[in-house]
Amino acid sequence: MSIALIGASGNVGSRILKELSDREHAVTAIARHPENIAKLPKVIAKQGDVFDKAALSDLLKGHDIVISAVHFTASDPHILLDAVKAAGVKRYLVVGGAGSLEVSPGVPLVRTPDFPPAYKPEAEKGAEFLNLLRTENDLDWTFLSPSAQFLPGQRTGKFRLGKDQLLSDDHGSRISFEDYAIALVDEIEKPTHSRQRFTVGY
Questions:
Q1: For residues 168 and 58, what is the distance between their CA atoms, to the nearest angstrom?
Q2: pTM (global) more than 0.90
Q3: Distances in Å between the alpha carbon of 49 and those of 2, 52, 101, 133?
Q4: Are strands 2-6 and 65-68 parallel, antiparallel or unpaired?
Q5: Distance between CA atoms of 88 and 15, rounded to whole angstroms?
Q6: What is the spatial distance between Cα 99 and Cα 115, in angstroms, rounded to a whole number?
Q7: 16-56 per-position pLDDT tens digit
Q8: 15 confidence band (pLDDT: 50, 70, 90)
Q9: 42: how many CB neighbours lie within 10 A of its CB?
């Protein structure tokens, strides 16, 4: 498949990029600083600005799928959605956040007393993006939320999938960037969460 990855040089984006390359997908890797994008097979690095709708749309044209792996506080969901639609791409996957996942019925993680204040702005913006996607009729979108602890780790291929509830086990709620990337690329290759949010965790 021909895939455009926005935010290809970041912590999560770089792992998704490697997973896509390892599975032999052709990727246009987009970042503000393309020199920071890993040099991998079938990857073309491009400079892009998430706030320049026209230029971003031009970069996205001709792809089968767009993946957004940018911070919610460092982008505008309306610009991203408009750019994807203007490019004529129908399938859009978003690297989501854990803050909007429910810890009990009707109670999202971001609203719990121990949620770190430093992460609240990003979590709340992520929830807003998800709510916006849920009103979207033109795109075949998917929003993949990680678990609460989302850090570098091992690529094990052993994880669980869920829907809107936070996943956790005896060791807490966690997923590595590497295993998250597997779950996202699996969804690209075998779609099972069209116009849905789902989550991945151990």
A1: 41
A2: yes
A3: 20, 5, 29, 21
A4: parallel
A5: 26
A6: 9
A7: 999 999 999 999 999 999 999 999 999 999 999 999 999 99
A8: very high
A9: 14
